[in-house]
Amino acid sequence: MLVSSAAWLEMSLMSSRQASAVADHLQAFHAADAALTVCARRLVSSRRANGDATLGASLAQSDPQNWKSETWFESNAFAPVPQWPGSVTPPQCAVEAWSIPSRPQAEAFAVTARGYGATRETQAWLQLQLVIEDGHVERHWRRIAARPF
């Protein structure tokens, strides 16, 4: 009976740890999702306010990759909200401009957000690719499965 009780206790503890980890990851995901939404709205409204002029030829010609660099992300990221309940650090986002060779009049941006859970190790990464052309905004959302750094 003692062995059976110990096994049930161990299973209960493991289940509790798993539930806590899931809650922590959901916390990080919601923080990243909120940051992504706020950053994308600000970007679209600022581009509409500034007109639809293209950004120039110095942009990346392919899918943006700078967000994968810790140095680039840390130097370009900002916190769109001052704090997030339950998170150790406010969520961050960074915006990277790029061009689409087949659509020279379009402005394209990769908005990358990082949200935290109760610890800095618990992170969720989300990305939204925005394409603005002739007043229309295309949104292509994706979850980043693994932390880039």
List the main descriptive attributes of the protein structure presented here.
alpha+beta; 25% strand; 149 residues; elongated; four-stranded antiparallel β-sheet
Characterization of this structure:
The chain has 149 residues and is an alpha+beta fold. The protein has one domain. It is 38% helix and 25% strand. A 4-stranded antiparallel sheet has the order 1-2-3-4. Strand 2 and strand 3 form a beta hairpin. The longest helix is centred in the N-terminal third of the chain and has 49 residues. The radius of gyration is 20 Å and the shape is elongated. It starts with a helix and ends in a 5-residue tail after the last strand. About 5% of the residues have low confidence.
Q: What order do the helices and strands come in, and which of them pair?
A:
Layout: H1 2-50, H2 70-76, E1 92-98, E2 107-116, E3 123-133, E4 136-144
Antiparallel strand pairs: 1-2, 2-3, 3-4
What sequence of helices (H) and strands (E) makes up the elements?
HHEEEE
| Mean pLDDT reading | 87
Write out the strand line-up for the largest beta sheet, numbering strands in chain order: 1-2-3-4
* Sheet/helix structural class: alpha+beta
Shape: elongated
Q: Mind summarizing the main beta sheet?
A: 4 strands, antiparallel
What number of domains? 1
Strand segment tally? 4
Q: Tell me what portion of residues adopts beta-strand conformation.
A: 15-25%
What is the rounded Rg?
Answer: 20 Å
